[in-house]
Amino acid sequence: MERQKNYEKTQMFIFLGVAFALPYMLGILMGIGYTKGLDVSVFPSAQMFYPASGAILAALITHREDHLLPKRFFIGFLILTLLLLVCTVASIIVPGLGWNVISQYLMILGSVIAWILLLTEKKDKRIAYGLRGGRWKTAAHIILLYLILYFGRTVIMYILSGQIQTMAEIMQKPVTWLMLLTLPINYFLIFIAFLGEEYGWRYFLQPILQKKFGMVRGVLVLGIAWGVWHLPINFFYYSSPSVGIISLTGQLITCVTLGIFYGWAYLKTDNIWTVVILHFVNNNLVPIITGNYTEEVLQNQDVTWNSVIILLVVNTLLFASVIFTSYYRDDSRRLPTMDERVDRQMRKLEEQAQWQDAKE
Predict the structure, then answer these.
(1) Among candidates 209, 247, 204, 210, which has minimal Cα distance to 228?
(2) For residue 71, is pLDDT > 70?
């Protein structure tokens, strides 16, 4: 138990350094690029990879002797992260070379290679490090529920803004339905970015925080941390420094409320791919429901305190209400930390080997 605590301290130090310190340091460079009018869109794309990279580095350093490490997949992920990191720096030092396009191709190629590396890892390795799916029927129900709530929120927002006619026009456009139909294909080509966040937030950090603070406080602390992590993006991409505080406040509300829902989905399925899909859906539906159809809709958003208040009320009612379910009332529902999950799988394999020896 003491060894496990020591591991967790070291792992948290590594994770925080990569997931938080790195994007904040790069945020300075991002701010410089923003003030110069340069394209900084590579930064938020690359930043999505840092949470998982922090968890992966923590695993590779503290579990380096572990034969269950999915090393091929982990190293491949870190190489892709490093390449994207290079693109962010290069986009400021050598601007105008289409670094955002290069990064998009890197993520597509990286996703294809990642599927190969992941699926060629042994099942025991994927189980030990939380990369194997499961409870897919429950996961499908949760994804369907999320879609219903998401589109319900969209309708509410359009009604409250007096733009119901605009929503109707968007729904009548063939490109809207074409993009909706191609979403599943896009997921397989870009999934690695969303695993980049969720493997850090839900797989690694959520169990540690819930172990330390309890089920409810743990997920709330995670939501706040997730929101604050977006700070450079809120100030220099989603909006501008003049309304950065408003944007960050909205981000905190979004991350806390959606974090509660995503945390519940992960607790209920013990399947990291459930929340990876939810996160993918959340981000990739935005260009469709706004009728913009490009990622540019995420940039330079016009945010106001009124919109933040509406977001607080609607998101809390639609997504955060699952905090009252048994999954947040019962500490026994907590999922294992990385160390606990690996130890559990090792014990299982040892028991299987002993049973096999006894049988022979």
Answers:
(1) 247
(2) yes
What is the tens place of the pLDDT at every residue in 195-214? 999 999 999 999 999 999 99
Q: Are 216 and 323 in contact (CB under 8 A)?
A: yes
Q: How far apart are CA 176 and CA 156, in angstroms?
A: 19
Contacts of 327 (CB under 8 A, 6+ apart): 215, 264, 267, 268, 333
Length of the chain counted residue by residue:
360
Where would I find the beta strands (DSSP E) of the chain? none
Check: CB of residue 211 under 8 Å from CB of residue 220: no
Quickly count: other Cβ atoms within 10 Å of residue 345's Cβ.
19
pLDDT digits (tens, 9 = 90+) for 104-157: 999 999 999 999 999 999 999 999 999 999 999 999 999 999 999 999 999 999
Look at residues 98, 75, 288 and name the one whose alpha carbon lies nearest to residue 177. 288
Q: How many whole angstroms separate alpha carbon 211 and alpha carbon 4?
A: 13
Give the tokens for residue 316. Answer: 């809390």
Round to whole Å and give the CA distance between 150 and 168: 17
Secondary structure (3-state) at 121: coil
Residues near 308 by beta carbon (within 8 Å), at least 6 away in sequence: 246, 249, 250, 253
270 and 139 Cβ atoms separated by less than 8 Å: no
pTM above 0.90, yes or no: yes
Q: What angle do CA 107, 185, 180 make, to 5 degrees?
A: 115
Longest C-alpha distance within the chain, in Å?
A: 74
